[in-house]
Structure formats: structure tokens, C-alpha cells
Amino acid sequence: MAQSSKLQSIFLLLLVAFMLLVDVSIAGGEGSLTKAVSWILTKSERGNQRDRDRERAQARNGHKSKQGKDDGLTPEQRRERDAKALQEKAARKAAQAASGGGNDNGGRKAVKK
Q1: At residue 81, what are phi and psi to the nearest 5 degrees?
Q2: Rounded to an integer, what distance in angstroms lies between the CA atom of residue 30 and that of residue 34?
């Protein structure tokens, strides 16, 4: 891995030297060569940290994809299921409040001092 990093740095330095010799303007306008060189050097310094982190996270999660759970439901069925669960939860909470059970903290745990 260190070998590819060295090769990448050498390649970038050669590219910058060539750009300076040929006086190539990448984006046009004044100072564009300086901006391009700065961008190239910044990219080479950062390396592939994002890619490595993504690979590590994927390995930790057991190669799960970014897609959600495939429960075989259509979006409409999923909405109905979720709405029913919310209604049941609200009914339980209302029944608990009506019976006088629970605390007066609005469902939050009491903080011990």
C-alpha cells in the first residue's frame, strides 16, 4: 500500500512539473494552474481514507447493502402497518394515563440526584 502511495505521489509531481513546463491552464483564468496544483496535492495528501472507512464499515456490518429491509410489502402496505402500530401505541399510552399509572414526566425516566 505504501508502494502505491509513493507511485501516486511521484506521478502527481511529474504531472505538476509537466503542467508548469507546458503552461497549461486547466480551468482558464488567472491563477487556475495554482488552484489545480493545490487541488491535486490536497487530494494526494488525503489519500483513500474515505474508501478505507467505507470498506471497514461494510466489513463490520456483514456486507449489508444500503437498501432497507425487504419485507415484501408495498409502500402503501408499509404505511398502513406503521399507522396501525402508532394508533395502538397511542391507545396504550392513553389507557395508561387514564388509569393513573406511570409517572408525571411525560414518558421520560426520572433523573436521580
Answers
A1: -60, -45
A2: 9
The model carries a pTM of 0.32
Matching residue, cell 436521580: 112
User: Hey, what amino acid is at 29?
Assistant: G
Distance of CA 24 to the CA centre of its chain: 36
Tell which phi-psi region holds residue 102, choosing left (phi > 0), alpha (psi between -120 and 50) or beta. Answer: left
Element (H, E) at 92: helix 75-98
- Look-up of cell digits 387514564: 98
As given in the structure block, the three cell numbers for residue 92 are 396504550
Q: 43: pLDDT confidence band, cut at 50, 70 and 90?
A: low
Name the nearest CA neighbour of 43 among 32, 35, 33, 55.
Answer: 35
- Helix, strand, or coil (residue 112): coil
**Helix intervals (H) in 23-74:** 32-46, 49-60
